[in-house]
Amino acid sequence: MGTLRALVLCCTLKPSPAPSSAELLGREVLAALADHDVDGDLVRVVDHDVRFGVSTDEGDGDGWPAIRDRLMKAQILVVATPIWLGQPSSVCKMVLERLDAELSETDEQGRLRTYGKVAAVAVVGNEDGAHHVTAEVLQALNDVGFSVAAAASTYWVGEAMGGTDYRDAGPKSDTTGKATRTLATNAAHLAHLLTAQPYPAS
């Protein structure tokens, strides 16, 4: 069983070096994936000049093609997003819109180039909405060809009307941490299976 690659797209609204709870949870997913022969890295999308659009390259210095190249070299994609107004962040929605272009990208056997890649999601917020956000993001990723493992999400939400961020909440090893470990175990398992036995030709 060889080493796989994972990419976390962190969809915080905050450019670096501002602290980000979404980035923290995304990095915790990478740490958990490392226990299953998966190497990976994280891209904070807002740090790049990603243009709005639904193509693989919007031109004029668009930052998406370089991110997409890293995504195509990975077997696991993790989207880490905060909750805003009960929704995925606007950065997350832009990423999903850019991934819509993959519906037109096929390999020599007619399969989407995203076939065989496994998707997962990590969500943080200070209000309820984690299940809604998870459902929106995973459905969109499945629509554009990604496979979804069992329990492919992890999340943390603070108290309603509260002001505590995940990064300030202290260790959550028995709740969010357990979900993160399960996500990593199942996503890595499915990615190894699909690498060894790809989907048939379309």
Automatic annotation (TrEMBL):
Alphabetized SUPFAM superfamilies for the sequence: Flavoproteins
Q: Which InterPro entries match?
A: Flavoprotein-like_sf, FMN_Rdtase-like_dom
The NADPH-dependent FMN reductase-like domain covers 6-149
The record ties this protein, via Pfam families, to: FMN_red
Q: What protein does this entry describe?
A: Flavodoxin
